[in-house]
Amino acid sequence: KAGVTQTPRYLIKTRGQQVTLSCSPISGHRSVSWYQQTPGQGLQFLFEYFSETQRNKGNFPGRFSGRQFSNSRSEMNVSTLELGDSALYLCASSGDNEQFFGPGTRLTVL
Amino acid sequence: AQSVSQHNHHVILSEAASLELGCNYSYGGTVNLFWYVQYPGQHLQLLLKYFSGDPLVKGIKGFEAEFIKSKFSFNLRKPSVQWSDTAEYFCAGDRGDNAGNMLTFGGGTRLMVKP
């Protein structure tokens, strides 16, 4: 069974730009959650999508948004990038009362 | 609001030493608790989870954790560590009464095991 995949693995952007990250969950999983990992703030929950609907939302500004497609693949978008958005963005798909994490996308904002 | 805290930020042990990493959560209702491990260069992996029932939970690679409701704790233990246990360990919680998957993580503990 293939694991959670995230693309791209690395991204470099400049302030003010926007970025879209993609996550493909494990086959059969309908829930996808997104987390931001930084050295200063640790792992923080961004949002969760289930059956194409946002089911839970963390405490992040509106510049962070997401969506989920009918095949359960999910994207997150960050608009008007700031230096502080540099982080590892993790996606997790859920099944059997467990979240399975992908390798992450490392975003660097210059 | 729910929170999870890990008191030890860095731990250094010699091989064969016993390990206990502290985790406390703050939430008055039903909680689901997890320990994840992140080996260098690898993604987060689940070590063990607690939902209900026996408060002593056994996970992979010889790890176990005990849920003590009266102390709001869920400490991770291993009787004898190996060099390969060098990694960062995260405690996480999820409200048991919430529909969905929304983990709150502790700050993590970096464990270094000296050979």
Descriptive key words:
heterodimer, A: 110 residues, mainly beta, four-stranded antiparallel beta sheet, 0% helix, B: 115 residues, six-stranded mixed beta sheet, 12 strands, globular
Layout: helices, strands, pairs:
The complex is a heterodimer of chains A (110) and B (115).
Chain A: E1 5-7, E2 10-13, E3 19-24, E4 31-38, E5 42-50, E6 53-57, E7 64-68, E8 74-78, E9 87-95, E10 98-101, E11 105-109
Chain B: E1 3-5, E2 10-14, E3 19-21, E4 24-26, E5 31-38, E6 45-50, E7 56-58, E8 64-68, E9 73-78, E10 87-95, E11 104-105, E12 109-114
Parallel strand pairs in B: 2-12
Antiparallel strand pairs in B: 1-4, 3-9, 5-6, 5-10, 7-8, 8-9, 10-11, 10-12
**Beta-strand percent range of chain A:** over 45%
- In this structure, how is the largest beta sheet of chain B organized? 6 strands, mixed
Q: What sequence of helices (H) and strands (E) makes up the elements of chain B?
A: EEEEEEEEEEEE
Strand content of chain B: over 45%
- Distance from first to last alpha carbon of chain A: 37 Å
> With helices defined by DSSP (H or I, 4 residues minimum), what is the helix count of chain A?
0
Mean pLDDT of chain A: 95
Number of helices of chain B: 0
What is Rg of chain A? 13 Å
The geometry of chain B reads as globular
H/E element sequence of chain A: EEEEEEEEEEE
Uncertain segments of chain B are: none
Main sheet overview of chain A:
7 strands, mixed
Query: Roughly what percent helix of chain A?
Result: under 10%
What's the shape of chain A? globular
Given as residue ranges, the uncertain stretches of chain A (5+ residues, pLDDT < 50) are none
